[in-house]
């Protein structure tokens, strides 16, 4: 069995994965309540919390008693916050030395890329290889607070970035928009909740869908547009129109995401569509991607909510399913890209 460790940002997470059975267990300690006071993640505090939480997680999971079953430890080595990554790697390597098992580094973004396939493996572990081959080449979209990336996984499971943001990520745009609206951290989910009672067509925010031949996303102009609009309305008017503003702002983000995804699907050749990353929990985005996949008559694989954030399960699974994600010798790489190991 493979033990995995994830500490790229503000979640301390471990998971246990058996290739013959699937996920044996997952344990996560979130720091959202701690960072809420500061309106965002404070790197030094996040690092301190990892130091405090990993060994208690190990005790809760009772993994010391099962150490003889563990044959490898996989740990996130990037991208992420340098101090947080360092704590996770130190923890993993200390266990590797104590238990005499190898430790490998795994690309966090490649974990997200393969996370929609976790359920495919769980449904039939013995048939996973054959079932996966029927879904390749695969077009995937990672949407999070730090990344917005369209990528493909070809028949040989090689990952290639096709389009990514040139400025703010989609999740960052939602969080910054929420801050402009005076909403507490974490802002993206707050915008989504308020948007449920709003009219998405009430305000015309810029969609910024790049031309078909330009493979990029851009969300900074959307945030700027919201700021200019808010400067022209009173606090009372804002309270009355807040649901419509949230719905329209969120719709502009989703329209750009699905618009560029549609451009690439029209190129043909893909057998499945995937969605992962923290923002993939947004219900409106999920529905939009499912509709898009249905239009092109292909399955839409969306990571489970518990596997969309910074979780260790996707790290363990990537170490199993994606040979290019694994490095036997590795260093901390805070700015690691999806298509680099």
Explain what you see.
- The chain is of the alpha/beta class and 341 residues long.
- It has 2 domains: 2-125 and 306-327, ATPase, nucleotide binding domain (Nucleotidyltransferase, domain 5); 136-298, ATPase, nucleotide binding domain (Nucleotidyltransferase, domain 5).
- Helix content is 43%, strand content 19%.
- It has a 6-stranded mixed β-sheet with strand order 3-2-1-4-5-12, sandwiched between helices. The chain has a 6-stranded mixed β-sheet with strand order 9-8-7-6-10-11, with helices on both faces.
- The protein is globular, with a radius of gyration of 20 Å.
- The chain starts with a strand and ends in a 14-residue tail after the last strand.
- The model has no long low-confidence stretch (mean pLDDT 94).
Task: List the main descriptive attributes of the protein structure presented here.
341 residues, alpha/beta, Nucleotidyltransferase, domain 5, 2 domains, 6-stranded mixed sheet
Topology, pairings included?
Elements: E1 2-6, E2 11-18, E3 22-30, H1 32-36, H2 43-61, E4 72-78, H3 82-99, E5 103-107, H4 108-114, H5 118-123, H6 128-133, E6 138-143, E7 148-153, E8 159-165, H7 170-180, H8 187-195, E9 216-217, H9 220-230, H10 235-265, E10 272-276, H11 283-295, E11 300-302, H12 312-321, E12 326-327
Parallel strand pairs: 1-4, 4-5, 6-10, 8-9, 10-11
Antiparallel strand pairs: 1-2, 2-3, 5-12, 6-7, 7-8
Helix pairs in contact: 2-3, 4-12, 7-8, 7-9, 7-10, 8-10, 10-11
């Amino acid at each position: 069995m493979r033990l995995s460790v994830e500490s790229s940002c503000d979640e301390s997470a471990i998971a246990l994965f058996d290739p013959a059975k699937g996920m044996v267990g997952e344990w996560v300690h979130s720091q959202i309540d701690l960072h809420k006071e500061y309106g965002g993640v404070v790197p030094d505090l996040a690092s301190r919390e990892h130091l405090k939480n990993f060994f208690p997680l190990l005790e809760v999971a009772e993994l010391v008693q099962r150490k003889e079953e563990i044959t490898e430890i996989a740990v996130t080595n990037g991208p992420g916050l340098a101090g947080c990554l360092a704590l996770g790697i130190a923890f993993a390597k200390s266990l590797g030395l104590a238990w005499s098992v190898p430790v490998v580094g795994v690309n966090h973004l490649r974990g997200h890329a393969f996370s929609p396939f976790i359920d495919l493996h769980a449904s039939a572990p013995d048939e996973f290889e054959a079932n996966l081959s029927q879904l390749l080449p695969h077009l995937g979209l990672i949407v999070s607070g730090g990344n917005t990336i369209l990528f493909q996984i070809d028949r040989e499971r090689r990952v290639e970035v096709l389009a990514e943001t040139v400025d703010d990520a989609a999740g960052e745009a939602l969080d910054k928009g929420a801050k402009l609206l005076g909403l507490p951290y974490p802002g993206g989910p707050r915008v989504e909740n308020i948007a449920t009672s709003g009219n998405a067509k009430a305000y015309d925010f810029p969609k910024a869908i790049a031309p078909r031949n330009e493979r990029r996303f851009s969300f900074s102009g959307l945030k700027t547009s919201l700021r200019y609009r808010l400067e022209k309305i009173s606090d009372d008017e804002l309270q009355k129109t807040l649901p419509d503003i949230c719905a329209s702002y969120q719709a502009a983000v989703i329209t750009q995401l699905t618009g560029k995804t549609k451009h690439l699907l029209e190129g043909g050749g893909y057998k499945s569509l995937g969605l992962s990353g923290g923002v993939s929990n947004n219900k409106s985005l999920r529905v939009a991607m499912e509709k898009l996949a249905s239009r092109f008559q292909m399955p839409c694989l969306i990571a489970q909510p518990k596997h969309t954030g910074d979780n260790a399960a996707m790290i363990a699974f990537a170490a199993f399913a994606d040979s290019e994600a694994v490095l036997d010798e590795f260093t901390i790489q805070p700015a690691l890209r999806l298509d680099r190991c």
